[in-house]
Write a structure and sequence with these properties.
The complex is a heterodimer of chains A (233) and B (350). Chain A is mainly alpha-helical. Chain A has ten helices and three strands, in the order ααββαβααααααα. The relative contact order of chain A is 0.14. In chain B, helix 5 runs parallel beside helix 6 and helix 8 runs parallel beside helix 10. The longest helix of chain B has 16 residues.
Chain lengths: 233, 350
């Protein structure tokens, strides 16, 4: 039997494409109802009604895909509320159609996939930098950092997400693959470490700032409870 | 002018508005967008200190007296620059047009500058309008929205050949300062409205023009930094960066400023309040008092009184030919901050 906890767990795998944070932690899931006979009803909201429709669509469609596959789900609705293109997006998502179907003749799905890839690359860069900084802080040299393998990464959420992102991007992530790679997938060279970190830190600052603004706006519009997410997990 | 601890700061606010978003100005049938837009702005206001928040009704339409008090009297602003936002699809007489702004400039000619706008999709008629606007309002700058949807078009790019025609017209008309909105967008869809590659392209091709990237490319500040490092005529407009972060997320604000100082440098950053989203008073005062909070920020370039004087007004005064009283200028100095070279090296690696 499908439970609310399992649905929320699945929604936790859906990330804001730009911020690379789970929508459950961002407070984007407003409600999640699960009946005994397997009907699931999910409501999503974003920090403002003007948030980019392409990102809104990606999150709603990803949420649908994540929950649809769970055993015991017999009926599923995912709805985006309080958004200026909500009607179009909801109609396309519920029919299982792509973004193109939401705005016929106005867009091209390929662009959306390219955008998603771009964000995956940035997120990978930012997250790797955090792992790398920890190693450097513990005294690792540039050579040691660059000789590191995936198997040596800590068993922590940041490292697990890096492996996931590499999988999405088609960058090998076997145990003996290099722990740190450039956005192209090439291994990081020791002589480039300092500049790479400088770049990565800027990308991470960008992500953190965006996440901060999103949370602050949600809170401003929906009260302090918005930040922790209206849905208790 | 703002004075603090014996130092005097000349303040140019690079981004102010005098809008009318009252229900009387909403286009019938478009009410939900007109209402949603101003409510979204109003939510941004809540990122400032609580005592500066306005009720929505006042925020929709504020008076000339409010403007003069908030910007000039209390806000320490010597000169404000109007950046127009038309949005005529939603607001009958426009949200914040050149014409509306010009009525304020007429009353305060020494304190306000009105910028114009153009859209390459307007073609010949747009060029003619730009010529008329330039003549009538003595334009020195324009504000551009590349992400704006219109008549089935999903926005445009500064790389479009039609845009180059307008940029050349700007040069001919003496319009040197091209403010490009690369930040929270109006109608973004599949087109990536935050992409700054088009600014990169036209900044290289039009070295006589200055390109001020408004909202520092938020939420893609990194793309903006990598690009601006390579282009001598690209500047960072700090609207939203200060108002949206300095109070609400002070540690992030310090990081953003540190990154901008490292990548862009203090000579190319321009203060802007984005009034009436946020009042300039707390932003000017807070910025003058600001410094990095602790050791975690020791890698970033140092912030000096001269840094703040440049950002708050002297940089913009130079772009707009605003005369700065002798006592408020900096002594002539040579060289660029050391961080610039590092940034260029790092940028090549980006």
């Amino acid at each position: 039997m499908i439970t609310r906890a399992r649905v929320l767990d699945a929604l936790g795998s859906v990330h804001d494409p730009e911020l690379d944070e789970p929508i459950t932690e961002l407070g984007f899931v407003t409600s999640c109802e699960v009946t005994l006979d397997g009907a699931v009803d999910i409501l999503l909201r974003l920090p403002t009604p003007q948030c980019a429709p392409n990102f809104a669509y990606l999150m709603a469609a990803d949420a649908r895909n994540a929950v649809r596959r769970l055993p015991g789900v017999r009926h599923l609705t995912v709805r985006l509320e309080d958004h200026y293109t909500g009607d179009e997006i909801n109609a396309a998502v519920s029919r299982g159609k792509g973004f193109t179907a939401a705005f016929p003749g106005e867009t091209d799905d390929d662009d959306l996939e390219a955008l998603r890839q771009l964000f995956h690359r940035k997120a990978l860069l930012a997250r790797q930098a955090t792992l790398c900084e920890e190693l450097v802080a513990r005294g690792a040299t540039a050579e040691q950092v660059c000789a590191g393998r995936v198997a040596e990464l800590p068993d922590a959420p940041e490292a697990r997400r890096c492996v996931e992102l590499r999988r999405h991007l088609g960058i090998p992530s076997h145990d003996d693959s290099p722990a740190f790679v450039l956005p192209s997938g090439e291994p990081l060279a020791a002589c480039n470490l300092e500049r790479w970190l400088r770049t990565a830190r800027l990308v991470r600052t960008g992500l953190e700032v965006n996440g901060g603004i999103c949370r602050a706006l949600l809170q401003a519009r929906h009260g302090p409870a918005a930040n922790s997410g209206a849905v208790a997990t | 002018m703002y004075e603090r601890d014996g130092e005097k700061y000349f303040v140019v606010d690079g981004h102010v508005h005098f809008w009318d978003a009252s229900p009387e100005n909403w286009v019938p049938g478009q009410e939900q967008y007109a209402k949603g837009w101003i409510e979204c702005f109003h939510a941004y206001m809540s990122l400032g200190p609580e005592e500066t928040h306005w009720p929505l009704e006042k925020f929709q339409k504020y008076s000339e007296e409010d403007f003069v008090r908030d910007v000039f009297q209390d806000g320490h602003v010597d000169v404000g620059i109007f950046q127009p936002t038309y949005l005529k699809q939603w607001y009958r007489a426009g949200f914040n047009t050149l014409e509306r702004n010009a009525t304020m400039v007429e009353k305060h000619p020494d304190r306000l500058i009105a910028n114009g706008r153009w859209d390459p999709r307007d073609g010949e008629a747009g060029l003619k309008q730009l010529e008329e606007d330039a003549k009538r309002h003595n334009l020195q700058g324009v504000k551009l929205y590349t992400a704006e949807w219109r008549d089935g078009s999903r926005g445009w790019s500064l790389k479009d050949p039609e845009a180059q025609v307008f940029l050349e017209k700007c040069q001919e008309l003496g319009i040197k300062n091209i403010h490009v909105h690369k930040g929270p967008t109006i109608w973004p869809l599949d087109k990536d409205a935050f992409d700054v590659a088009d600014v990169d392209y036209c900044a290289t091709n039009n070295p006589e023009l200055n390109f001020i990237v408004e909202h520092v490319g938020l939420p893609r500040i990194e793309d903006f930094c990598f690009m601006a490092t390579q282009e001598p005529n690209v500047y960072a407009g700090l609207a939203v960066a200060i108002g949206g972060l300095m109070h609400a997320r002070p540690r992030f604000f310090s990081k953003v400023m540190g990154e901008l100082l490292f990548w862009i440098g203090e000579d190319k950053m321009l203060f802007a309040s984005d009034y009436a989203i946020w009042e300039p008073k707390w932003q000017v005062e807070g910025f003058v008092d600001w410094d990095y909070p602790d050791e975690e920020y020791s890698d970033y370039p140092a912030v000096t009184t001269a840094t703040k004087k440049k950002i708050l007004g002297l940089n913009a005064a130079e772009l707009y030919g605003i005369e700065v009283p002798e006592e408020l200028r900096l002594p002539v100095e040579a060289g660029t901050p050391a961080a610039r070279e590092d940034a260029q090296l790092a940028g090549e690696n980006a």
